[in-house]
Amino acid sequence: xxxxxxxxxxxxxxxxxxxxxxxxxxxxxxxxxxxxxxxxxxxxxxxxxxxxxxxxxxxxxxxxxxxxxxxxxxxxxxxxxxxxxxxxxxxxxxxxxxxxxxxxxxxxxxxxxxxxxxxxxxxxxxxxxxxxxxxxxxxxxxxxxxxxxxxxxxxxxxxxxxxxxxxxxxxxxxxxxxxxxxxxxxxxxxxxxxxxxxxxxxxxxxxxxxxxxxxxxxxxxxxxxxxxxxxxxxxxxxxxxxxxxxxxxxxxxxxxxxxxxxxxxxxxxxxxxxxxxxxxxxxxxxxxxxxxxxxxxxxxxxxxxxxxxxxxxxxxxxxxxxxxxxxxxxxxxxxxxxxxxxxxxxxxxx
Amino acid sequence: xxxxxxxxxxxxxxxxxxxxxxxxxxxxxxxxxxxxxxxxxxxxxxxxxxxxxxxxxxxxxxxxxxxxxxxxxxxxxxxxxxxxxxxxxxxxxxxxxxxxxxxxxxxxxxxxxxxxxxxxxxxxxxxxxxxxxxxxxxxxxxxxxxxxxxxxxxxxxxxxxxxxxxxxxxxxxxxxxxxxxxxxxxxxxxxxxxxxxxxxxxxxxxxxxxxxxxxxxxxxxxxxxxxxxxxxxxxxxxxxxxxxxxxxxxxxxxxxxxxxxxxxxxxxxxxxxxxxxxxxxxxxxxxxxxxxxxxxxxxxxxxxxxxxxxxxxxxxxxxxxxxxxxxxxxxxxxxx
Lengths: 350, 336
Known about the structure:
The complex is a heterodimer. By secondary structure, chain A is an alpha+beta fold.
């Protein structure tokens, strides 16, 4: 145990706490709370019912009110702790609320109705999850549709990105042809063309090709990423040409060389690009917002924005769907974490 | 679990393998006829075709759009007006007063963006640098903490915007903290100054992990023997930082600075979800201006939006050239 604490509280050089150690730990622990806290608060809030969401001050954990079936009533009645005038408390069930008064009964003696001022009653609650927040928007609203659209866009865009980018990268790394440098120059030169600069003409191109309000109108403009071509090319350059030559000796076609030799060997770079692509396409917002104007074609991001922009925001649904939108990215994060910690991601960016 | 992923893999790969085999026959024929040059064309074609249609063509068309007027989206339906759109964007009766400009929204958006970029990039670089320096220390759980700061980078801007809108709302978490500290609750996003600060804070929160990683990679590339030598000479830590760490980190710091500038100028998604440009126009930034003029408003004007996007593009081109120049210099420095 002492060795563990010694390890955890390892300090700069000798004994005693240097001020930099204190700054370090305050920064790291504060940072952890700040980075994860908002997301955890979102998850906790998404499990609260609408009534609880409107409360101030909010509770940290989601609660649901305890209800109890009472003789003589069809529906279970919500329970409250009522403070009597003499200071004693008792648990009563509420029948209905009239103005500032509530009509209540003792669950054990349902015959006598008691009038209680609502200031004197506290809801009796236990930790519980309002799972309805998740079920309702998926079942009755369009969120299942949005979810499917997002999955479709992400999968298709990633597959096409991997295929077309790797083909181009193969040609650019393994062939020597006239104009190769020009193609490379165009790709590097447009590496930084941001979407926001070409919004208007891109919209006209997409509408001219009949892709407005189609998921393909979201997918196609994003798939030919210069970043992907560049990344894969750099990796394929490290694959020795001798392997390709040997395959040519055995009468392999160029396509077979690409498909059966270069692609499998480039798997690590393809995996990196696949992860990037999934996160990018899942998170895309501005372009889908412009192309998709019909509700049934919305992706999750656009759908969320639309529902959150309504005059009367139904936060209990929005929060739950935000959590759903966050899930794939959290999974990617758990996978990526190992790369980040070993510094590969850092080296890759450099 | 392994069995599931394996069978899932077969479901995907077997049809793909068949497809690849079928494609091989026509391609073999093509290869015999045209040789390697022809095959290079085949491999390049899909990517370059998509790229050409959806990036290069719009890039050229953008200039044409910026010289036309009207509400139609198709170029042939539009009337040529020369540089009128640019004139409309840039002309003011009195350049010291925004309200006298013909397109005062554009100037508001440009001014807001400038203020945003200055504060956001300064905060971003400072926070990322401190975090990178701390993560570079020999501490327990270093791997865990590195990942922690990267988490928001992966979140979608819409999720980021909604998370913080929920925290900053009237009955939100921040007000809970305020009340517990004995202060008055506020409606944060209804106040111009608070909303502006919130857009800066939220975008730093969302992206600092990315820049921290770049700086951390730079810190780890600094040779350890420099620090050992300084240690032997008994150099005070502050001096080590100013004389060794900062100069050697310089190229990385410059790249981070320019990258953050490029991203900052284009800020849209999370701000649009968080504040929608409000209250009033206090968080209206350039990309939102372009989006609203070109698509969202009733009196949409694609030509004006194109002209504004070209002006923004010019700023980005300058920044990108600086970035390429810097990373070129960094590569050279690395080789030396």
